[in-house]
Design brief:
heterodimer; A: 235 residues; mainly alpha; Fumarate Reductase Cytochrome B subunit; two-stranded antiparallel ribbon; 9 helices; 8% strand; elongated; B: 264 residues; alpha+beta; Sulfite Oxidase, Chain A, domain 2; 5-stranded mixed β-sheet; 5-stranded antiparallel β-sheet; 5 helices; 10 strands
Chain lengths: 235, 264
């Protein structure tokens, strides 16, 4: 028999879907700003493996030569991005949902088992509640990253007035590198997230819009066997 | 019409089956999702295609974004304090090759001995000050990380007169009750507007030296603004005139879509 099982509260769904366009706009406008001084690359032993970013990337997305526009968008949407994040964090704290989200001691060990299971190397996944160990780590990490973007962002936005934040980030240079690296992190998160959502299927995806999952429960026997002896019923 | 959200089925109406509940809730949530996504997309398009602001002291930005920049300025001005100082470095860390990014307003060469700084008081009175007069004032040096709006930064070493010392010496204190300072190059091709608190910040200099030598032509000989609480775009080279006003003075990059405040 089909049964409706509540999964994601409205506040979670709302902040999740509001965050998607907001973060997209922040990344887009951030790349326009980054173009102004695109100095980062991956170099190992004198060989440059990748330059952020190749010219074709800027051309394809039209990121070149709009620095003023990029800054104006970035400094407007930063407010909404931060506000949405604060609402989400407050909600998880007040509702107690954080208990489902924050990694537990065993999560770090279990996350490997989840990974092996997802890669079809291991048959059984560890038992879980709402989120598995890998999800707990990922969904908490992404919030920490969001906070990181906020702090590193403020550190490079107002390095004189918020000098203590700049100091905390290891200086102006490092703060800008962290701010950039976090963005790359979001993109990697997004790729894995999408793959996982596709693999998890429709029921899971729907729950992030409708809030519930449909599960098949075996009907309970109508006639219960009442114990005739003094034995306690087996639960 | 019945309230569709009413939970009590009236009369002989059957309670919804699980299938009906599922499709009803799907309809409502997916419907809302599509409508809200559409609204968000429409809002984004409207913002992106909003008209460019009318040309005033600022120009070139999308109207609502300019409004947002100006409002955001008000928020961050609250954090401004003369106690918040830009980080300074030892002299040895200063770049020997000081980067210079633009020559707007510093075309040709200026005759340093003939050059005079024109200070325009609001009353209309004008002071003309030569570079040697300025060099007689107490000298202040700073080694700090110069930050460009493009995203690069460089530790550089400057020497000159603290703007607030300059104000006191020329008895311009009454002028600092006004909200803004305007500075322009002699050819009037480059110009900046600075809010008074930033101008009076203890690290703002009228600089005549870089790396302990007189400013070269490309760094704005004989006198330039060094204002560490602002991006490089506000650090005007080759100052020709200084004026005071309650209105925002014209600003070269604010006319090209950049934030007027551009404070750090």
């Amino acid at each position: 028999m089909k049964v409706i099982k509540e999964k994601h509260p409205l506040a979670m769904r709302w902040t999740h879907w509001v965050n998607f366009p907001l973060l997209s706009i922040m990344i887009w406008s951030g790349l326009i700003i980054y173009w102004g001084n695109d100095e980062y690359k991956i170099t190992l032993f004198g060989h440059t493996y990748f330059k952020f970013f190749p010219q074709g990337f800027y051309d394809a997305l039209g990121l070149q030569g709009h620095l003023a526009k990029g800054m104006a968008f970035h400094f407007l949407f930063m407010w909404f991005f931060a506000l949405n994040g604060v609402i989400y964090i407050l909600y998880t704290i007040i509702s107690g949902e954080w208990r489902e989200l924050v990694p537990q001691k065993k999560s770090f060990k279990e996350a490997w088992l989840v990974l092996l299971h997802d890669l079809h190397i291991r048959k059984m996944a560890p038992p879980q509640k709402k989120y598995n160990a890998a999800q707990r780590i990922a969904y908490t990490a992404i919030i920490v990253m969001g906070l990181g973007s906020l702090i590193t962002g403020l550190a490079i936005y107002k390095p004189v007035q918020f000098y203590y934040l700049t100091w905390l980030c290891g200086g102006y240079h490092l703060a800008r590198i962290f701010h950039f690296a976090l963005t790359i992190g979001y993109v990697l998160f997004f790729v894995i997230h999408i793959v996982q959502v596709v693999l998890a299927g429709w029921n899971n995806f729907r729950s992030v819009i409708s809030g519930f999952e449909v599960i098949n429960e075996n009907p309970k026997p109508i006639v219960e066997i009442t114990p005739t002896s003094d034995e306690k019923p087996v639960q | 019409m019945k309230n569709p959200f009413s939970k009590k089925p009236k009369g002989p109406k059957k309670p919804l089956t699980v299938e009906q509940k599922i499709s009803r809730r799907n309809f409502i949530s997916f419907g809302s999702f599509v409508v809200l996504s559409g609204a968000a997309y429409g809002g984004w398009k409207a913002l992106y295609n909003a008209p460019i602001e009318p040309r005033t002291v600022t120009a070139g930005a999308i109207k609502p974004l300019r409004r947002a920049l100006n409002k955001t300025e008000l928020v961050f001005r609250r954090f401004f304090s003369n106690n918040n100082l830009v980080k300074t470095y030892p002299k040895e860390m200063a770049a020997k090759n000081v980067r210079h990014n633009s020559d707007i307003g510093v075309g040709g060469t200026v005759d340093v001995q003939k050059w005079q700084l024109q200070v325009q008081k609001q009353s209309g009175e004008v002071l003309n000050i030569g570079i040697d007069d300025l060099k007689k004032l107490p000298k202040t040096e700073i080694v700090f990380d110069f930050k460009c709006v493009e995203g690069w930064d460089q530790i550089s070493y400057w020497g000159g007169v603290k703007f607030s010392d300059f104000i006191t010496h020329y008895k311009l204190d009454d002028q600092t009750k006004l909200d803004y300072v305007g500075m322009e190059t002699p050819d009037k091709k480059y110009y900046v507007g600075i809010d008074m608190p930033s101008a009076m910040h203890p690290q703002t200099l009228l600089a005549y030296e870089v790396n302990e030598k007189p400013l070269p032509q490309n760094h704005g000989a004989p006198l330039r603004l060094i204002i560490p609480v602002k991006y490089g775009i506000k650090n005007l080279k080759r100052i020709g005139s200084i004026s005071f006003s309650n209105k925002r003075p014209r600003d070269y990059w604010a006319e090209k879509g950049y934030d007027y405040y551009s404070g750090l």
